[in-house]
Design brief:
2 copies of one chain form a homodimer.
Chain A lengths: L1 E5 L6 E6 L6 H4 L7 E7 L3 H10 L5 E7 L8 H13 L7 E6 L1 H13 L5 E6 L2 H7 L4 E6 L2 E8 L5 E4 L8 H18 L1 H15 L3 H21 L14 H11 L6 H18 L5 H13 L12 H8 L12 E6 L2 E5 L4 H10 L4
Parallel strand pairs in A: 2-9, 3-4, 3-5, 5-6
Antiparallel strand pairs in A: 1-2, 7-8, 10-11
Helix pairs in contact in A: 3-4, 5-6, 5-8, 6-7, 6-10, 7-8, 9-10, 9-12, 10-11, 10-13
């Protein structure tokens, strides 16, 4: 087991990464300060891992709530269902929530914890690669609104993150690839050496070779932890973690939440960001090729759906948390391994990029 | 105009108190950092003051949303209506919300600001005495759940509080008295001299003598600001501000939100807290008389509704944010001017108090 730390003063917390961590009570229980625990999970993960987690909570007044699986359930209504369960069971301000599942479960549970009685503790037990390398770390929590993804939420840091790499054995291939998209992202935004390593080890990653997976998760979590420690509330460098996300969120929204996996939409978004970066003269055609090739090798899409018109795309992109005073800002690539947030692109260049990256 | 400060480091903010402040753009605009502003108000306050506030926002991209008036609308659904309006108007992370109204408007608006795009700025313009002396200061925001009052929310401090005492001229007598309940609270929990002053000046307060009102608001805000600066997230002394609130919340919930005004329920709750404090031997029958008399002089109720049984009362009190590990904790009086949080009372003493304080 490897343990990293997210350094946030008296709100610092550990990230434990390794095989067979799920049942280990000694990793979880030191982070539970009251007696009441509610495990939030979904109907895909519950049959696989819920019992193991509940067993490690003997001695606590523990309950579980099983939500339907899918991004389409990442709503305020679902959060309210959690509040109802907490109140029905008379959960107090010293209760702890545990998120057992992927990014959707983590985001919903974190926001419920942020808002129940103005904030209670929570623990992340991510069971997808995407959640282990990205969404479980850093305290971004929230839900979607019909008019925009992740528009409702809070910054609320977990007490602890437990990434059990054994849980990835039950992950569908498509989900594994979606997680790899976020791993590739770290290489693109600030570590060209890591990107090279990914190019060389993609086969082993896709075949879930344990040491290769563990290394990719550690590198990713370290990168995320460093950035979050530097800029918790996204006033600066943290925005770079959104490479591909403005394009990606538009694809997710236009396609109906849950049809494209978040990582898939981000993959296509990164290909689009690379294309626009090239049109700005920042990266070479060869760099664009590198981006497209590694994404395709990871079985990820690089073209946006044919049915999203330019107008619709721009309409959806205009609802983005990085927009300031009405101006769209995007994370683009200055080079492979260096990203920036910028509004310095022409409208025409954006349109050409949208056209170029659309599936035919 | 008098200006107090809530000292919270780089999140410190001013409280301006005085007549005719509503239209003064120079008080509001320095606290708006983007171009987009949404004023949240209700259908009672809008006809009186909305135009004046909107006029002071010329130069901004300003909108308003008018909610139905009443505690029964302090729900997650109403907050979602605000999100919808913000997204329909493409409001970004640098937008500002302005709460124009009483405590309900302030609580809803503050929670919307806390949760929209993980937190945007907001300004409080309280137009009821209760909001001016209590709820607009200190960053407690939130909404009710059918199973418990203020169970969903966040700590989110405003950028500025503007308490225009002229707005109190249009307040119904019943609302004025409800606000006085919270003013009396400050005297009871930590300032016996102020309580004496209130006893001597209650007539002038009720007749809305401007200088008397202004002094009561300043004293209350100063007390609140001091306590919030000392204990923002209610780990200690801030809990004392909940004198009467555990009993009061139970009355509000049992009676249906909106039937009892919050201040009325708190008044009865304080009478009940005084009664229990006496039964514990902490305060004299004369002290209990002092509490009951000043509340009655302020035209506030001191008896709980006849229809709430002891079982129902206790069931509702068990859902309280001060409960820890299943143990009910109450704010009680050690003396007039000194409150403590305690679980050191017998169940029998609580039952006797519930019986004693019930209307016949």
């Amino acid at each position: 087991m490897k343990t990293l730390s997210v350094d946030l003063g008296n709100r610092s917390y550990p990230i434990h990464i390794g095989p067979d961590l799920l049942g280990k009570a000694d990793l979880i229980t030191p982070h539970i300060h009251g007696k009441q625990v509610l495990v939030v999970t979904n109907d895909t993960v519950a049959p696989l891992y819920l019992e193991k987690v509940m067993q490690s909570l003997s001695g606590f007044n523990s309950n579980s709530i099983i939500l339907p699986d899918g991004e389409q359930y990442k709503t305020l209504d679902t959060v309210n269902d959690i509040f109802t369960r907490l109140l029905e069971n008379r959960f107090n301000r010293d209760a702890t929530l545990i998120a057992l599942g992927g990014g959707v479960i983590g985001d919903i549970t974190g926001f419920a914890a942020a808002s129940y009685q103005r904030g209670i503790d929570f623990i992340q037990i991510p069971t997808t690669l995407l959640a282990q390398v990205d969404s479980s770390v850093g305290g971004k929590t929230g839900v979607n609104h019909p008019l925009g993804k992740n528009m409702i939420g809070a910054f609320h840091q977990p007490n602890c993150v437990i990434a059990d790499t054994t849980t990835l054995n039950t992950l569908e291939d498509r989900q594994l690839s979606a997680g790899i998209a976020e791993v590739i992202k770290y290489g693109l935004i600030r570590d060209s050496d890591f990107l090279k390593w990914l190019q060389e080890n993609m086969d082993k990653l896709l075949s879930r070779e344990p040491d290769t997976l563990a290394y990719a998760i550690e590198k990713s979590c370290q990168c995320k932890a460093d950035i979050v420690a530097e800029d918790e509330k996204e006033h600066g460098v943290r925005a770079l973690l959104n490479l591909g996300h403005t394009f990606g969120h538009a694809i997710e929204a236009a396609s109906g939440y849950g049809n494209w996996l978040h990582g898939e939409a981000v993959a296509t978004g990164m290909a689009m960001a690379a294309e626009l970066s090239h049109r700005l003269g920042w990266i070479t055609p060869n760099d664009v090729d590198i981006v497209n090739t590694i994404l395709k090798t990871a079985n990820l899409p690089v073209k946006s759906p044919a049915e999203i018109s330019n107008d619709r795309f721009q309409e959806l992109m205009a609802i983005d948390k990085k927009v300031m005073d009405g101006t769209l800002r995007l994370v683009l690539l200055k080079s492979i391994g260096e990203a920036i947030v910028t509004d310095q692109f022409e409208h025409e260049q954006l349109l050409t990029t949208l056209n170029h990256c659309r599936a035919v």
